[in-house]
């Protein structure tokens, strides 16, 4: 059984992790929501809990949602809790301790020093007022990369850390039909090289700076397609930036389901110059699809892929990004294919469904 807050696709990697865990572990999901969903969701128990804001003064869930949570997990042999700094964590920990039921917590990057620095006093107060006890009493505190784990442990030195990477599998191989469909949708030449940026429009992910660096690079045959959901940056700002770029940049908007499958299958490369990514789901997805990647050093997953050439790793200066774009544009098809094949092989070994299933089984045995 797993417990989370408002699982929606706009959450990006957190949502994908929750859905992956449900599928691989055959786990039911308890979702705490502001309001009841209009339609029942398969495998989900929805609990209306109102707005669970970032406040240290409400240590636990309100009484009625707390009772509903206790009832929802009454038959669970192990509970996995997603996210921190909200009352569901301390409430769940208290229920599980009372019943002697093991539980684990997935950090989702929320103990990263950069994340802690935002609203620091609220988060540190939450940790002091029961949060740290809930974390350090858990069977495991789960991370997706070794670097994420190393950065987090100073905040919770008594926790029992473990790595549980999600299962990131490529979509069905429809590469040639997907290439034709994507190029027709984007209105670009059949032999154009397609580079994709996929993520939430968040300042941390630096989509506007990426578009500017690509425009400065002036590639001759590469088209950049930008896809995502608005977050701290509005769609209007993204469109304004695109209007200032040249004709080699396209806007796709949100991509989900079959459309997401098409764009990953059709692409020739992937770019993400995020300031910080504790996992980087789209980056991992691109590797699984055999795409060469242009990424920043802020991707924690790179530490686990050390010694492996994912493509191009850029520094923080945007001039370096333009150089990466030019190098990708000039690279031979054989060079890109070789990088892509190595990326796909690494993903098969480390991000497969079987790998995640075996890791979950090992964690459950250790917690029993």
Please tell me about this protein's structure:
The chain contains 15 helices and 13 strands. A 7-stranded parallel beta sheet has the order 3-2-1-4-5-6-7, with helices on both faces. It has helices at 13-25, 63-72, 87-99, 113-117, 120-136, 146-152, 175-186, 207-217, 235-244, 257-266, 281-288, 301-304, 318-330, 333-350, 353-367; strands at 2-5, 29-33, 44-48, 79-82, 103-106, 140-143, 161-163, 193-201, 222-230, 249-253, 269-272, 293-296, 311-314. It has 368 residues and is an alpha/beta fold.
Helices and strands, with pairings:
Elements: E1 2-5, H1 13-25, E2 29-33, E3 44-48, H2 63-72, E4 79-82, H3 87-99, E5 103-106, H4 113-117, H5 120-136, E6 140-143, H6 146-152, E7 161-163, H7 175-186, E8 193-201, H8 207-217, E9 222-230, H9 235-244, E10 249-253, H10 257-266, E11 269-272, H11 281-288, E12 293-296, H12 301-304, E13 311-314, H13 318-330, H14 333-350, H15 353-367
Parallel strand pairs: 1-2, 1-4, 2-3, 4-5, 5-6, 6-7, 8-9, 8-11, 9-10, 11-12, 12-13
Helix pairs in contact: 3-5, 7-10, 8-9, 8-13, 11-14
Residue-averaged pLDDT: 92
Form type: elongated
Output the number of helix runs.
15
Strand arrangement across the biggest beta sheet: 3-2-1-4-5-6-7
Roughly how much helix do the residues carry, as a percent range? 40-55%
Secondary-structure-based class equals alpha/beta
**Hey, roughly how much beta strand do the residues contain?**
15-25%
Order of helices and strands: EHEEHEHEHHEHEHEHEHEHEHEHEHHH
Care to count the β-strands?
Answer: 13
Features:
single chain, 368 residues, alpha/beta, 7-stranded parallel β-sheet, 6-stranded parallel β-sheet, 45% helix, elongated
């Amino acid at each position: 059984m797993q417990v989370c807050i408002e699982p929606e696709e706009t959450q990006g990697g957190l949502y994908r992790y929750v859905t992956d865990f449900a599928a691989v572990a055959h786990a039911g999901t308890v979702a705490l929501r502001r309001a009841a969903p209009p339609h029942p969701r398969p495998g989900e128990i929805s609990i209306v809990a109102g707005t669970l804001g970032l406040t240290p003064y409400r240590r636990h869930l309100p009484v009625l949602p707390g009772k509903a949570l206790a009832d929802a997990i009454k038959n669970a042999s192990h509970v996995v809790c997603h996210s921190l700094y909200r009352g569901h964590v301390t409430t769940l920990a208290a229920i599980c301790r009372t019943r002697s039921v093991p539980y684990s917590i997935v950090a989702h990057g929320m103990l990263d020093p950069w994340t802690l620095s935002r609203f620091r006093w609220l988060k540190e107060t939450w940790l002091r007022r029961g949060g740290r006890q809930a974390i350090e009493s858990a069977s495991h505190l789960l991370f997706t990369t070794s670097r994420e784990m190393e950065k987090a442990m100073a905040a919770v030195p008594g926790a029992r850390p473990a790595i549980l990477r999600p299962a990131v599998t490529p979509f069905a191989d429809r590469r040639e039909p997907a290439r034709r469909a994507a190029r027709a949708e984007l209105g670009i030449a059949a032999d154009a090289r397609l580079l994709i940026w996929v993520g939430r429009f968040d300042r941390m992910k630096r989509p506007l700076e990426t578009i500017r660096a690509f425009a400065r690079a002036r590639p001759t045959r590469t088209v950049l397609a930008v896809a995502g959901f608005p977050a701290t940056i509005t769609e209007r700002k993204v469109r304004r930036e695109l209007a200032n770029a040249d004709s080699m940049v396209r806007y796709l908007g949100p991509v989900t389901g079959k459309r997401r499958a098409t764009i990953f299958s059709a692409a020739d490369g992937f770019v993400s110059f995020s300031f910080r990514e504790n996992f980087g789901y789209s980056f991992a997805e691109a590797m699984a699809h055999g795409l060469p990647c242009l990424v920043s050093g802020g991707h924690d997953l790179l530490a686990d892929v050390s010694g492996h050439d994912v493509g191009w790793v850029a520094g923080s200066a945007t001039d370096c990004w333009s150089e990466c774009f030019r190098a990708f544009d000039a690279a031979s098809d054989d060079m890109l294919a070789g990088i892509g094949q190595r990326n796909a092989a690494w993903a098969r070994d480390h991000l497969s469904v079987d790998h995640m299933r075996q890791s979950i089984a090992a964690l459950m045995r250790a917690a029993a």
